[in-house]
Design a protein that fits this description.
four-stranded mixed beta sheet; alpha+beta
């Protein structure tokens, strides 16, 4: 990064360096304090490191130092998107005898909207200060003022994905998904018939939102009232005897459920 900024003005190089260090500190603190917000921070800053390292390689050429930086940035960003990091972060908000597992992002969001939100948020956060540093004061100030709420909206939208969890508690299993349910739903331990991989032809209420990965099916003894979110934030009432959801690490969830003596199986 330092070599790539050598050809820039002192103010631009200094501002870019400060931004890079702030981003590094945010990501570093996120690794020390596992929380849902930390997960969002890691997944927001990780791709920024790839972009910065890629730009540095483009400017200074494919030296071994630049290539090593790009590889390190890529590996770090990829690790931030793994299920075990995700579960560690969301479980940091647990209290008492509970275990939290992240739900996979809806498939439709991964097809473009999530990436667009990240690009908009990153551009809104960085463009203004860099324009000011490049002596475009008026445009930079206006961009910063406009960009801050854009960044907050984009970050909040991405953070919603870090709050989608399934929670194993002493009383049973709780599904907390602000994208599909108006409120978290507890399925009592004594009402659970089985929890296991969902067959392709299941008639259970699908709350997975076409997420990629192995979906699990939870069956209960009697209809469970749930408030399902529809378009425009409206909710409809449903009373399924089985639901389908997709955790990021289904094997770990089933293992913990078995340890808690919940009925698991196909």
């Amino acid at each position: 990064m330092a070599d790539a900024l050598d050809e820039r003005s002192d103010s631009f190089a200094s501002t870019a360096s400060w931004i890079a260090w702030v981003i590094w500190v945010v990501a570093f603190l996120a690794t020390l304090l596992p929380r849902p917000l930390s997960l969002t921070s890691l997944r927001f800053t990780g791709p920024l490191a790839i972009v910065a390292a890629g730009w540095a390689v483009f400017v200074v050429g494919a030296t071994w130092q630049a290539a090593l930086g790009l590889v390190a940035a890529t590996v770090t960003a990829v690790i931030g998107f793994t299920a075990w990091v995700a579960d560690d972060c969301v479980n940091g908000a647990s209290y008492g005898d509970e275990q939290r597992f992240l739900l996979r992002a809806p498939g439709a969001l991964l097809a473009g909207p999530a990436e667009v939100a990240w690009i908009a948020g990153a551009a809104a956060l960085l463009t203004g200060p860099l324009l000011i540093a490049a002596d475009s004061l008026v445009i930079g100030v206006v961009t910063t003022i406009v960009g801050l709420p854009v960044f907050l909206i984009a970050f909040r939208s991405l953070h919603a994905l870090s709050n989608r969890v399934v929670v194993l508690v002493p009383a049973g299993l709780t599904l907390a998904d602000p994208l599909t349910l108006a409120e978290a739903k507890l399925f009592a331990r004594d009402s659970i018939v089985t929890l296991g991989p969902a067959p392709a032809d299941t008639d259970a209420l699908d709350l997975s939102q076409q997420a990629l990965g192995l979906a699990l099916r939870l069956e209960v003894t009697s209809p469970a009232a749930v408030s399902v979110l529809e378009t425009r934030g409206r909710a409809t009432q449903a009373a399924p005897t089985a639901i389908v959801f997709t955790p990021a690490s289904p094997a770990a969830l089933l293992a913990e459920a078995g340890r808690r003596d919940l009925p698991t199986g196909a």
